[in-house]
Amino acid sequence: MQDMTVDTQRIIAALRRRIDQLSYENAVLSAAVDQQREQIVDLIGDGENGG
């Protein structure tokens, strides 16, 4: 069995790309949650005012 050679610079670059992807996904999900929260508040407010 051969030893595996690891290029730490490539690993670091791959991890940085993944962190960037996760940061973007987190921002998109956060914006979606904020929009949903606003819609729920609007619906609850409309229900209280109309009911």
Automatic annotation (TrEMBL):
Domain of life of the source: Bacteria
Name listed for the protein in its UniProt record: Uncharacterized protein
Source organism (scientific name): Planotetraspora phitsanulokensis
Species classification: Bacteria, Bacillati, Actinomycetota, Actinomycetes, Streptosporangiales
